[in-house]
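[Meeting: bench + compute handoff]

Bench side (C.D.) handed over the final construct sequence. Compute side (W.E.) agreed to return the predicted structure before the next meeting so the bench team could plan truncations. Sequence as handed over:
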Amino acid sequence: MMYDSIRKRIIGIRSKYCEPILELLAKEGELYHGDLAEKLDIAPSGLNVIIKKMLEGDPPIIEVTQIGKYKIYTLPIEIKDYMLNRELEKIALSEGEEALQAKKNSDNVLLCVQYFVEKAGIKWRDLLNLMLQEDEDDVDPEVQKAFERLMKCIKNAAKYKEDQIDELNKFLNNDVLVYLVQRYLEEVDECEMILAEIKKRENGKRLVRHFKIQ
């Protein structure tokens, strides 16, 4: 029922740009006004008209944060959930129920391990060891994809599903692999922190350039 209500609110906007805006924000998380207009290939002034309509609903289907002269757009949690659910439905239509179930199960560590083992073959432990140490150059793209999915799954589980991490360690039954997984994820976290700091500085420089122009 809630999704039906959201769908009616979106249709009520009567703009072909409404859903593209929601899709972009569901994917990106947040966007500045200028960046959103650029991705939509429309004028910032034209975007203003659309955003105004999206804010008129009760409750509005988009959120705005004002920082000086800058506007940053995000989605209310229920709208983001709706758009992500729409994406799952698209996967189901294009690839079938099996793909949809795989998407929904992508946060289960043991299922991700199983998927990696199936792709890597009988020597999966040795290959996992090498990939965790970034000491394997010639990796099948499907195996690489399965490895990245597994690491992402383990990272999420480490924050919210510690019982799955315990199950993983029991399954691996190898202190070296357990240690390498932990070290690999710590290095990923460190890289993400560095990238976030770079992005923060770039945004700051963008603000400074804007005010200088003004």
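W.E. noted at the follow-up: The radius of gyration is 22 Å. C.D. will use this when planning the next construct.
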